[in-house]
């Protein structure tokens, strides 16, 4: 473990919250890498050199100041991690006043460094796991060697497996992301990895015939937890089960399932979204062409578009649509007739209904 200037500066910042004395941090070469007095950074500190060599507290007096380079009266303490000295913390002042709390500062410094090591190792593990999953989702077959690598990461799930993608809004903080991961790992037999910004990828093992409903129930509780405890909204796309450890098909379909989510809190199983998946695969130019051809004639009369949306939303039910729009049934019939006149599509016929639905779906996935 190397004590960096960045970490030294962080330690200085935390120490200043507790004491008013000047503080320095040196590396193992006794060079000051951080200080409350920036002018001292880069200086050689002979007192720190002695502290490192002896691996013990060094009391520095005015007499020492006359003999040793770069020092001021105070106390120097070794910073040790796993019984190895990685630097020195020095506190300037009257040794008799400083010594009583010097050991406390030493312990605080070592705890901060231990925390930094833990965070760094956790980040390394997270990146390594993400890289492993990036490779996994592209494999057409899984070798025994790859399975052994999975076990190194603690991934021991046997098939059948399922991929789930989780989108989080608004922008999530690191501690919130970790709490979400902790909840999922506690309640599901799963492996979760951070998957870019505001997204998680989860691999779950199918455990029973009713596992689809079981998974949905758990994920609904997960959404409730995220919303009530962390003020986060969760959308979820779930791929189909794969019989072996080749998860590529499940991942690709989970990606499609979450892409067609119409609401920020949808839970979408790929197998339940075949129509939406097909529509989503249509060329963007063709989508725009359909919107223009079908819906543009309604734009001059804004109430017609809203009427059509409500009519489809209420499954073509005349009374419910009229009540929703706060209009008389005769007015609704007039509007539906007007829609037919402008578009040449009868909103009471199956073909026309399908065409209207498709155009509105392309216009805005959240419309209906």
TrEMBL record:
Species name: Oceanobacillus limi
Domain Putative sugar diacid recognition: 3-136
Signal peptide: none
Name used for this protein in its record: Carbohydrate diacid regulator
Family stated for the protein in its record: Belongs to the CdaR family.
Span of domain PucR C-terminal helix-turn-helix: 304-360
Residues in CdaR GGDEF-like domain copies: 143-260
């Amino acid at each position: 473990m190397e004590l960096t200037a960045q970490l030294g500066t962080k330690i200085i910042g935390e120490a200043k919250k507790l004491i008013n004395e000047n503080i320095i941090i040196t590396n193992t070469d006794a060079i000051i890498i951080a200080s409350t007095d920036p002018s001292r950074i880069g200086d050689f500190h002979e007192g720190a050199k002695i502290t490192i060599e002896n691996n013990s507290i060094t009391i520095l007096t005015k007499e020492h100041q006359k003999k040793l380079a770069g020092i001021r009266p105070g106390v120097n303490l070794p910073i040790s991690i796993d019984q190895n000295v990685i630097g020195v913390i020095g506190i300037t002042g009257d040794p008799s006043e400083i010594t009583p709390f010097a050991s406390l500062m030493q312990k605080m410094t070592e705890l901060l460094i231990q925390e930094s090591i833990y965070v760094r190792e956790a980040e390394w593990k997270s990146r390594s796991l993400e890289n492993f999953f990036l490779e996994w989702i592209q494999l057409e077959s899984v070798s025994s060697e790859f399975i052994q690598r999975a076990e190194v990461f603690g991934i021991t799930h046997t098939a059948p497996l399922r991929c789930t993608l989780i989108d989080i809004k608004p922008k999530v903080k690191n501690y919130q992301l970790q709490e979400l991961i902790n909840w999922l790992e506690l309640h599901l037999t799963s492996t979760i990895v951070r998957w870019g910004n505001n997204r998680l990828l989860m691999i779950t093992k199918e455990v029973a015939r009713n596992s689809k409903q079981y998974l949905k129930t758990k994920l609904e509780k997960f959404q409730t937890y995220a919303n009530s405890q962390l003020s986060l909204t969760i959308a979820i796309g779930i791929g189909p089960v794969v019989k072996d450890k080749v998860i590529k098909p499940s991942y690709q379909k989970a990606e499609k399932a979450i892409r067609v989510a119409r609401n920020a809190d949808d839970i979408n199983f790929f197998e339940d979204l075949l129509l939406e998946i097909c529509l989503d695969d249509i060329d963007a130019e063709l989508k725009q062409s359909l919107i223009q051809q079908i819906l543009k004639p309604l734009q001059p009369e804004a109430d017609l578009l809203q009427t059509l949306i409500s009519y489809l939303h209420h499954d073509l039910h005349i009374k419910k649509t009229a009540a929703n729009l706060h209009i008389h049934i005769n007015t609704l019939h007039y509007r539906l007739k007007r829609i037919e006149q402008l578009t040449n599509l009868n909103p009471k016929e199956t073909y026309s209904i399908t065409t209207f639905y498709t155009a509105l779906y392309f216009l805005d996935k959240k419309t209906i």
